[in-house]
Amino acid sequence: MSVRWHKFPDPAAAAEACCRHIVAILEEALSGKDLATLVLSGGATPKLLFRRLATSGLPWKRIHLFWADERCVPPADPQSNYRVAQEDLIAPAGVPHSNVHRIRGELMPDHAARNYVDEIRDFFDLQHDEMPHFDIVQRGMGADAHTASLFPGEPLLENRDTIAAAVYIEKLKQWRVTLLPGSLMAAKHTVFLVTGAGKAEAVRNVFQAPYDALEYPAQIASHHSRRVAWFLDDAAASLMD
Ligand code: 6PG
Q1: Which of 50, 67, 69, 154 to mutate to test ligand 1, by most ligand atoms within 8 A of the CB atom?
Q2: Closest CA to 147 of 200, 65, 206, 198
Q3: Residue 223 CB partners (closer than 8 Å, separation 6+)
Q4: Residues 6+ apart with CB under 8 A from 8
């Protein structure tokens, strides 16, 4: 696996380095076109990253935000990935409302998924079978090596033709909407920000186990793609030789 990984003493240092990487990629993208696209993930890890991005000085009027996944809850719900980004990035950075393409978690799951796919198709002016090429996708990973809302054993992990879909997470008893592998693999750049000792075994498996996306979903767009960089703290990297 020719994927770059970098480790840092603590979560704040990892988030800072990840922020600098995202800024560099977006600035490079914007040197050649009017607009750039950044896909955000949810969970707790990216909060530090979002706060650093908010003060990065990026031209947010030229950057459109999308999500890797969303819980099927209203936008004001504490579980909403949009809400986390709204508080720590969108509001403080002044990202224009028209640049925010949230997944409408308040809708029925399938409706939310269709609405999101339509919004992505419209933004990128895609033909029916085309995948979006986001400039950069920021992803996290769970201790079970899930990424976005693609959990181990999920049949949608073998779908490379659909942009996004609704998925029921049995172990969480929760509906979500998630980008599917085709969208994740079509990204121009991917960054993973993963911290904490609880992720160490999954990190080692993603890097050292044979490719098996059903077992290790975070290997998607990581095992094969170029332009993937992992930002880890020492704890998450503790089992890497
Ligand atoms: C979500 C995320 C998910 C996240 C991992 C890690 O909606 O939960 O998109 O894929 O990246 O679950 O979450 P933590 O950062 O909270 O450990």
Answers
A1: 69
A2: 206
A3: 1, 3, 206, 211, 213
A4: 14, 16, 17, 231, 232, 233, 234
Cβ-contact 220, 157 below 8 angstroms: yes
Distance (Å) from CA 126 to ligand 1 centroid: 28
From CA 179, how far away is CA 188, in angstroms rounded? 15
Distance of CA 42 to the CA centre of its chain: 7
For the chain, the residue count is: 241
CA distances from 176 to 48, 169, 198 (A): 23, 7, 23
Query: What's the pTM value of the predicted model, to 2 decimals?
Result: 0.97
Classify the phi-psi angles of 216: left when phi > 0, otherwise alpha if psi is within -120 to 50, otherwise beta.
beta
CA dist 232 → 142, 191, 194, 203, 226 (Å):
13, 11, 5, 9, 18
Cα(33) to centroid(ligand 1), Å:
31
pLDDT per position as a tens digit, 152-196: 999 999 999 999 999 999 999 999 999 999 999 999 999 999 999
Distance 81 CA to ligand 1 centre (A): 9
Q: Is the dihedral of CA 12, 142, 85, 155 positive or negative?
A: positive
Does the beta carbon of 140 sit less than 6 angstroms from any atom of ligand 1? Answer: yes
